[in-house]
Amino acid sequence: MEIGESIVEDIILHQVGNRLREEPLTLANQCFDITESIANLILGGYLRGIVSDKNQYILTHESDMTLNDVAHHVSAFFSKKISFVELSRNLATHLYASAHHPNIASGDLFVILFDKLKLHGQYKSAIGVYKAESKQQYISTGTDGESRRLEVSSGINPDLIDKGALIVDGSEIIYAIDRLSSRTKYWIEDFLKAKQVPNENTKTAVAAGLIEKVRDNIESPVARQDFCREVIALCADRDEVPGDEIRTVSEKYVSSDVWSTELARITERKGLVDADEINVPTRNLQAKLKKMFNRINLGQDIGLILPENLSFNDVSFKDDGQAIQISITLGKKHG
After folding, report:
1. Are 192 and 167 in contact (CB under 8 A)?
2. Alpha carbon 15 to its chain's center
């Protein structure tokens, strides 16, 4: 998507409190006048700051997508059934109802109408929804007669998005940010009801989690290392490794349900769009595998960390009831 020609058409601000703390929802009735300087700040912060592959999501619903509130209200606006002000009030009311925890902070909710975003060669409109939960302090200078003074003021920094969403007309993909997600997850899970489209980092994390789970389900430490070597070999001399190739190697060592069960668990835990196939960037994956595979579980709750120049070949245990003798065979990777 190209945003270089984008403009700000309308902007409105509502105040959204936490209903569980009996804080009010204060709805505005009209939009602000937009100056060129304000529009430039919004385009440079709220628009450019959210359009990124790592922020791609898809709106969802447990049973019927038409029941997703955000999708329903935005669709009604784009089909000209409701006005922009009515859309913004509906979104603010839905956000207010989505607060299910007393720790959710109150804040200012900006709803912005963007135009001239270019998608697949066509100009599109988009709705931006941004909740500012934190304000920053700024130092400015003032004059009093001939003397100058420093003044402290507080305001919202559009370059630092607390919570945001951008819904483009005609696109299944939305963009979303929740910078404060470690405190509460209601913005993505309850307000938007969205799932993340896997990007390079999430694909790598999913693949690494799957590989680790498969390795942990292999009983023999020798077989575990054979599995590790086969996975590493898949990454050689290529930019991406298909997930189905990793799965094929995995199923030589464990039951097929280990992979599918763990994939479903990781996808659900990370809030990702369901994906049967993932192509994993080898650059990121190799770094994770190196750390993972250098830790060898020998069995009997005994582990071994190998240096880079050695590889694990075999282990045997002798237990006479009073002591355990461990014999480990290591190979040299370089000569």
Report:
1. no
2. 26
